[in-house]
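Let's practice the habit of predicting before peeking. Look at the sequence and jot down your guess about where helices and strands might fall. Then scroll down.
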Amino acid sequence: MYRALLADARFHELLLAFDRDLAACARAAGCTRCGGVLHAAPFWRKPRGLPAGLGAEHARRASFCCAERECRKRKTPPSFRFLGRRAYVGAVGLVVAAMQASAAAARQLSELYGVSRRTIARWRAWWRHAFVASAFWRVVAAAFMPPVDEARLPAALIERFSGGPADRLIALLRLLLPLTGGTAVHAF
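Done guessing? Here is the structure:
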């Protein structure tokens, strides 16, 4: 069910539209240091896991730079598409990490998205160790009752949201926005 969603260009277009909205809000807010005007200063990524046929705008990460000569502070808004510096798009990383760890499933995921078994194991380890030890997770975990089964992350989180697969995945991506880059990521 999630495989069809990840292969759907409309889903990725929706995530791009969300990112554009976040970028517009960040730009309108101005520089966090001096309040100056922000100029567009996007950078290119090489995102893995996207379906074929999407435009070049899907590889572009929104970012801004203060126009004031003495400031030049960079501001990178959160993203629904990119989870920090990870090479794979966020939705693929979440779904792959959430799937069962059987050898057959790992082989199939590796073939579908080009993700090696070592990468899948590293993602799962991040969820079960680094993520659950973060200050971000300690705050977020308190909002869930009964507590989320940390041994089943991120699948246990996806299951906590209502709606269809797209709604659930978008809700989890929204929850993770503070971890996606920019100044917020340094707080955790």
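How did you do? Residues 9-29 form the longest helix (21 residues).
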